[in-house]
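User: Could you write out the 3D structure of this protein bound to cytidine-5'-monophosphate? I've included everything you need below.
Assistant: Certainly. Input first, then the structure.
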Amino acid sequence: MNSQVTVSAPAKINLCLGVGPVRPDGFHPLATVYQAVGLFDDVRVRPAAEDSITVYGDGVDVTDVPTDERNLVLRAARLLADHHGLDEHVEAHIHKRIPVAGGLAGGSTDGAAALVACDALWGTRTPREELLSLAAELGSDVPFCVMGGTAIGSGRGEVVTPVMTRGSYWWVILPAEGGLSTPAIYGLFDELTAESGADEPEISEQLLSALRAGDAELLGGTLSNDLQPAAFTLRPDLAEFLEIGLDAGAFGAIVTGSGPTTVYLCESRGHALDLNRAFDQPGIVVEAPVHGARVIEHKR
Ligand code: C5P
């Protein structure tokens, strides 16, 4: 009766984010390399007569997180239950450490966590490929959040292929106040590229070979984000943050995803802790890559 499952799921950053011209379905073709970083939300589910959700913000503002059936956690539970023809409901709780609307896939990773949590709670043992395709129905970033590690994302970001990497990387993740709307940033990207036209996106060979070699300095020079000009248009202060980080010795610095979070690649943990002191509002020092959504507690 008191069964419950808790799943830990990571934030993601994009080492590169190539964006092509908008498709007829309104999404943009992407060529991206995702990396899962050591900053986690925990999602707990218990059986219940009807669906409900509560959210606790651990150092982050959660006022904009929906607490009804629009929340990706409850949508994930419904999707998995329907997929298996089950009439099951959950009482869900999110322990949130990932900034909301930050370009870190916080909402997506909660959806990924819920799929994995409900699969364990209901003993449905959904095959990996099936789980990834359900994840893709929830959102473009959700399959990567299930998978974790470092992976190429293509299609609208939902087609994920693991990438060979060596060693680990230290990042400063600098959240910015306010959040940015992903659709708004893609809309602005369309406006900014209306005249010149967006190229079909590709992933640079240098970036993949830096990852294969485990060479952070080389990797730093290959970071890129086609959404960055759009993010700067709404938030000119982000460019100043990147300058501060580069002056403080970051190997590379970019806006992640649709922003406004910026990320700084460092040589070591010590370097990241030092660099972090350059900012008025310090960021979060994390190691990467880390695992995808995974069960950390299962009470039967
Ligand atoms: O897939 P997801 O629901 O996370 O996407 C949120 C919004 O971001 C989409 O509705 C769309 O406006 C934009 N988007 C896009 N191209 C992508 C991914 C997302 O235009 N590849």
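The domain at 169-288 is CATH 3.30.70.890 (Alpha-Beta Plaits).
User: Perfect, thank you.
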